[in-house]
Amino acid sequence: MEEMVTLWTRQDERSLRDLEKLGVFRNRERYIRDYYEDVADHFIYLYRWFSDAAAKRVPRPDGVEFHIWCSISHESMLRPIPGTVGYKLQIPKSKVIYLDGGKWDFVLNHIYIPRDSADQAAYLKDIEKKGFKDQFNFIEGKYSRLYPQERKRVMDSWERVFEIDNWNIFTTQANIWEIRPEDILEVYRYEDDGF
């Protein structure tokens, strides 16, 4: 029997309609655009990178565009807000992609994820020696197309987001590809007591 894990996620309330009509909820680009509005392109670019990297670890089902972000504990879950619902899920462990949310912040800021503090110091010293004033412009910005090797170096480091150095309920996060009705243990609504 396969080991199961409990996860929590907050999703657009349209996910309920998808579950009812399609028998599955899958994250869609339009949901991301609606949620992030003016900065959606930033997130979609990074989510595409993440989805491609995650698919190397847990195969992406046909027809899935983007991953679904989850918390590994009730305490750290994103609570429902108007227009959203929360789900408590039970998912086969083999279908879960774990990541370090602290390292994800490096990806969000388009910067190098160091192996450790010595690697960080060596990286900063190296880019300073090369004449770069900061580390923030290799993916977007003034250096983004001028230095493809530095861009690749930064993006290759992002694979470390899947290396969890300190497993805990606040920085360890999970992703799955889809939600099916049989995965749902509980649905939370904004109006529910405790939210």
Describe the model.
With 195 residues, the protein is α+β, with helices and mostly antiparallel strands. The protein starts with a strand and ends in a 6-residue tail after the last strand. It is 33% helix and 19% strand. The strands form 2 sheets. It has a 3-stranded antiparallel β-sheet with strand order 1-3-6. It has a 3-stranded antiparallel β-sheet with strand order 2-5-4. The chain has a domain at 4-110 and 162-189: ADP-ribosylation fold (Alpha-Beta Barrel), CATH 3.20.170. The model has no long low-confidence stretch (mean pLDDT 94).
Offer a concise description of the structure.
This protein is of the alpha+beta class.
Layout of secondary structure:
Blueprint: E1 4-12, H1 14-22, H2 29-36, H3 40-55, E2 68-71, E3 84-92, E4 97-100, H4 101-108, H5 117-129, H6 148-157, E5 172-176, E6 184-189
Antiparallel strand pairs: 1-3, 2-5, 3-6, 4-5
Helix pairs in contact: 2-3
Keywords:
195 residues; alpha+beta; ADP-ribosylation fold; three-stranded antiparallel β-sheet; 6 helices; 6 strands; elongated
CATH-scheme architecture of the domain at 4-110 and 162-189: Alpha-Beta Barrel
Strand content: 15-25%
Distance between the termini: 35 Å
Strand order of the largest sheet: 1-3-6
Number of helices: 6
Overall shape: elongated
CATH topology of the domain at 4-110 and 162-189: ADP-ribosylation fold
Radius of gyration: 18 Å
Number of strands: 6
Unreliable spans are none
Give me the oligomer status.
single chain
* CATH top level label of the domain at 4-110 and 162-189: Alpha Beta
| Average residue pLDDT | 94
Reported for the largest beta sheet, the result is: 3 strands, antiparallel
